[in-house]
Design brief:
The protein is of the alpha+beta class. The chain is about 25% helix and about 35% strand. The chain has eight helices and 20 strands. It has a six-stranded mixed β-sheet, sandwiched between helices. A five-stranded antiparallel β-sheet has the order 15-19-16-17-18, with no helix packed on it. The two termini are about 30 Å apart. The structure holds adenosine-5'-diphosphate. The site of adenosine-5'-diphosphate has 11 residues, from strand 2 and helix 1.
């Protein structure tokens, strides 16, 4: 449906988007993940028509949108700060997009009630915005974006301003709602958990360039390069010598199998490491952090007090975690050894 071809956006000397090419399926949910300043908001604004392109094009079903103004694109956009109108009640906020579409008043009321029910705010129409909780305001903003029945919904860090408990709950709710909508959705976030939960595919942005566009599970299990691996919190990245099937790591030698020709590095996934008497890796525990479902341990090579740290995530149910200063041996699940380009 949506096609981006080699899209480029500049602000003076800053290139905010640099050659972004992307396609979105008819009811596909895409998460755009990247650090602050990587170009995520600019990408949404460029698609919406709020930011002129320096090069490339945005198209919908093959139609170039360059000369289609924002309000005629039929795209719903929800901002991080919600941008609600404080002087209007909930219904007035949700109806905003319908007024600009010149919908008759009676029909407008019906539609407002429909979308309020959809986001779980049935009966909230007459409430004042400043009497709502953060989570409720978020839903009003979502209802407002959905009211004109957009053909594409885009959300910019919609959970960013909420506290953790509420975010986790809304994340599950949003996942259910998105699946129900049957719309193409682009969801922007810097939070990997949100991206993996809400995106069928995840696009990773880094300084205006796409590092990867992959199904969420594949991205998580096999990050394609070092940037993506580290951004997902996997830091055991080691250089790879050419034709080296047996990798000498600071923690011991690891059998690798044949590396693909284009790989320069190898990732040892932290969740692929388990305590085991056989090894092949060993070292001294430098830190232990209990995280509920797992315990993170950082392991230095034996006899290297300032050596690098190998990170392992040990499942709480599997074993009693070691203590700082203890010597441990670790085995590696071969599926958790990932070649990086
Ligand atoms: P993100 O949403 O990932 O945090 P943005 O899209 O907001 O990133 O910004 C991408 C880059 O473009 C940043 O370097 C930012 O400073 C710059 N930028 C964004 N908007 C503007 C603007 N209106 N004027 C100048 N620079 C901008």
């Amino acid at each position: 449906m949506l096609q981006l071809e080699d899209v480029r956006v500049s602000f003076g000397p800053t290139t905010a988007l640099d050659g972004v090419t992307l396609e979105l399926g008819a009811a596909e949910r895409l998460a755009v993940l990247g650090p602050s300043g990587s170009g995520k908001s600019t990408l949404l604004r460029a698609i919406a028509g709020l930011e002129p392109l320096a090069a490339g094009r945005v198209a919908w079903a093959g139609q170039d949108l360059t000369n289609v103004p924002v309000h005629q694109r039929g795209f719903g956009l929800m901002f991080q700060d919600y941008a609600l109108f404080p002087h209007r009640d909930v219904a007035g906020n949700v109806a905003f997009g319908l007024e600009t579409h010149a919908m008759p008043v009676a029909r407008r009321k019906v539609r407002v009630d429909e979308v309020l029910a959809l986001v779980g705010l049935r009966g909230y129409g007459a409430r004042r915005i400043d009497q709502l909780s953060g989570g409720e305001q978020q839903r009003v903003a979502l209802a407002r974006a959905l009211a004109p029945t957009p053909r594409l919904l885009m959300l910019d860090e919609p959970l960013g301003a909420l506290d953790r408990g509420l975010r986790t709950r809304l994340l599950d709710e949003l996942a259910g709602l998105f699946a129900q909508l049957g719309l193409p959705i682009i969801y922007v976030t810097h939070d990997q958990e949100e991206a993996l939960a809400l995106g069928e595919r995840v696009a990773v942005l880094n300084s205006g360039r796409l590092e990867a566009v992959l199904p969420a599970r594949e991205l998580w299990l096999k990050p394609p390069n070092e940037f993506v691996a580290r951004f997902l919190g996997m830091n055991n990245v080691l250089p790879l010598a050419t034709n080296n099937e047996r990798l000498a790591t600071p923690w011991g030698a690891l059998e690798l199998g044949t590396a693909p020709a284009d790989s320069a590095k190898v990732l040892i996934r932290p969740d692929a490491l388990t305590l085991s008497a056989q090894g092949p890796l060993s070292g001294v525990v430098a830190a232990v952090t209990f995280r509920g479902e797992s315990t993170t341990i950082l392991v230095r090579p034996n006899g290297a007090a300032d050596g690098p740290l190998l990170e392992a995530h040990l499942k709480t149910a599997d074993s009693t975690p070691p203590v700082v200063g203890q010597t441990v041996t670790l085995s590696v699940d071969p599926s958790g050894v990932v070649f990086l380009s």
